[in-house]
Fold this protein.
Amino acid sequence: MAVARMNMNCSIQSSLSCILKPSSFFNFRTTHFRNRVSPTRNNFVAPKRSLLCTCSSNGNSNAFQTGEKAEPFVVTTPLYYVNAPPHMGSAYTTIAADAIARFQRLLGKRVVFITGTDEHGEKIATAAAAGGSGPREHCDVISQAYKMLWNDLDIAYDKFIRTTDPKHEAIVEEFYSRVLANDDIYRADYEGLYCVNCEEYKDEKELLENNCCPTHLKPCVPRKEDNYFFALSKYQKPLEEILAQNPDFVQPSYRLNEVQSWIKNGLRDFSISRAAVDWGIPVPNDNKQTIYVWFDALLGYISALLEDKDQPNLQSAVSSGWPASLHLIGKDILRFHAVYWPAMLMSAGLSLPKRVFGHGFLTKDGMKMGKSLGNTIEPNELVDKFGADAVRYFFLREVEFGNDGDYSEDRFINIVNAHLANTIGNLLNRTLGLLKKNCQSTLVVDSSIAAEGKEFKDTVERLVEKARIHYENLALSSACEAVLEIGNAGNLYMDKHQPWSLFKQGGDAFEAAAKDLVIILETMRIIAIALSPVAPSLCRRIHEQLGYSEDQFDNLNWSETKWGGLKGGQVMAQPKPVFARIEQIKENENGGAEAPKKVVKKKEKKQQVQGVIEA
Ligand code: MSP
């Protein structure tokens, strides 16, 4: 116990010393306790760093970094249960994480984007058995389905951790031993109501009629077990202090209030082993029990950091980037990330993550979309129909990050057509068309010269800065909105200046028109950078149309959103639509009665776009 405390920062240390008393364990509603487990080893060396790294990596980062010295930014998605293939709800967190990771890479940060699958536990074993396969085989198949979806959605993760990976198992065992050595594990009987879908014992007060889980609407089952427990209650005070001193630890702020009230109501020790579940990591020194799936899975965030060459131990993993900068999760798993996980880390003497952001749910008819309720939207279908950029853009733009959001196909098509096909795609296409016709697709002058004395440049710079701040604050919808405003401003500029008629007038008017096109194309260049976290393939195509190579796109930095990148003499590519409109055909059958709309499938895969954009 003393070893872990020695490494805590002062405030945590002082509060811990008043409460680390075994008597505080016994505050949950259960039965009798049996043999306390004595530590098997207590000689670990915990890292010498403060538990909560308060040097925030978010906020006003105007310094764009590059190279080896770049500050690491470790962002994680939840590790997804493999009871069933991914649905749009699981894809949502990953799309958001990818946009954030791409933005941080643009800032020059050394990003480690971690995702993966949570493969142990009763829920997975039951799903495998129901499908007629062994759990390992089942996990291989579903885990692969996640990887394929991430590929189709342009998710550029750095690490994919599977909790059945032997390296992860070694980390879990070592971590368990540390917590044990800290005297935070004991054995006891427990009786309660269990939701298999949440993999969690529930408090009767939280349940609906017939003891139904409010998330999964299925009855919880009574369970009685002899388990190992984690002494969460010991960490009540330290957690209260951490949250009071670091209000940004849990975001959005309304979720912080929720977490604080849970803690205030009293923390109960929780069971971290299962006697009746075989599919899991055996408890060290007691292979009759397996480690509770949440105690196991949360550690995936650390084991994911291991390099292939590393020995699978905590020290190697932690030195590769722990603590995480940001855990992105759905609001249903906030308690695990903002209460259990920090307490577990404190017990093991490890630093706490810097931030936990709990987003809302994608809903269908007001209900959380989910595998257990069977009301999901198939992300593969959406990607096949509309392409990855459209799917990514719609969910990030339409759902305010943090709140719930409902899906409707009509809304999807309207938004994507209006924003991506019209405001952005069409603006680029008609500008390039005019440049080809009048200037041999070549810029007549540097964009900085073209914009001299024009307020328009300031407008673009102001909006792109607005987008940056929104990205920093994880306000992804507002970031999209700011970029769209740039596109709107560009369209207004074109309508006001009408370069197509200036070209016809010749002389000075012709020159002015040629400059106007440079201004709009510079605007498109800035949009291509600023929207690339959200719609990477579309932005790559825009950038290439401006005469840049793939490599140049891959090495972009946010600092290049400054006005003045396009230079005179740069030759643009042939105008080609970068984003095809989604056409809805209304079929009129049955003697005039209107049949459902049919969506014309857009054949847009990565770089290839077919389809016509109105110029
Ligand atoms: N395996 C745990 C996480 C362990 S992390 C160490 C788990 N898995 S899950 O597959 O059930 O859920 C993963 C994430 O998907 C959660 O953040 C959850 O909130 C999110 N979503 C599942 N359905 C969702 C929606 N309908 N909408 C948005 N996100 C949702 O929990």
Observations:
- Residues 78-81, 89-90, 92-93, 118, 297-298, 300, 329-330, 332-333, 361-362, 368-370 surround 5'-O-[(L-methionyl)-sulphamoyl]adenosine (CB under 6 Å).
- The longest strand covers residues 185-195.
- The chain has a mean pLDDT of 86.
- The first helix runs from residue 2 to 6.
